[in-house]
Amino acid sequence: xxxxxxxxxRAAPGAGSPDQHGSTGPxxxxxxxxxxxxxxxxxxxxxxxxLLPLSLAVLALAxxxxxxxxxxxxxxxxxxxxxxxxxxxxxxxxxxGVWIIVLLRRxxxxxxxxxxxxxxxxxxxxxxxxxxxxxxxRELARTMLRSRRLDHPLALLYMDVDDLKQVNDRFGHxxxxxxxxxAAHAVRQCSRDGTxxxxxxxxxxxxxxxxxxxxxxxxxxxxxxxxxxxxxxxGSRVSLGVVEWDGAMTAGELLNEADRQMYRSKHMSRAExxxxxxxxx
Length: 281
Hints:
CATH architecture of the largest domain: 2-Layer Sandwich
CATH topology of the largest domain: Alpha-Beta Plaits
CATH class of the largest domain: Alpha Beta
Strand content: 5-15%
Strand order of the largest sheet: 1-5-2-4-3
CATH superfamily of the largest domain: Reverse transcriptase/Diguanylate cyclase domain
Order of helices and strands: EHHHHHEHHEEHEH
Oligomer: single chain
Structural class: alpha+beta
Helix content: 55-70%
Number of strands: 5
Radius of gyration: 30 Å
Number of domains: 2
């Protein structure tokens, strides 16, 4: 397996801006990547739970019997019986108000959990369990900003499963799905928890955000390729391209360059195979 990469010089932390729209207009496949909106997509946050206004409303409701007595007679109470009746009414109002507040908070927490679960589903590829393209768009912009602010290295690894169509045609689509799951397993097994993150962005394409310099990303790429080939039932291989962010490229340009390096690796591997097999076309 050949890993194609292009060394890049990191710009100063304050140089450039990780604009989420590519400023250039390349055509074809590269243009689709550079033109993708890679802004950070955040779900709308629910409005804060206002406990104070609700508490004041409950107190106002509880004070109604006393205010009514004051309005009718000019005094807070006229007899012990009325005092007892006003106290009971106030207690019922307070209990009812507390019950309503508890119900509202419980419903809000349940709705928040459901929204979080739904958000997780929209960011996950159902076949492999990795993040999907939307998750990549969200995390890449965030990681680029953090890399610039903390002056940490950042590399992008673009991976493509070789000849997946042949696996589908020869063994069936279930075998192709198993191959993709094996690729996802290799990504998860070789990545560092909390540091690297993997995403499936196309039918047979994966992208990893690696918090390391180019050399470290290349070592990770080789490890993923070896692990995948070992666990693939049909001896499939992958092509990988590695690009280190220079602090100036946009998110679209970074993905664009990693994609080009991946295809460069694929062409180099095919050329090596033709050289090793003289009778091949």
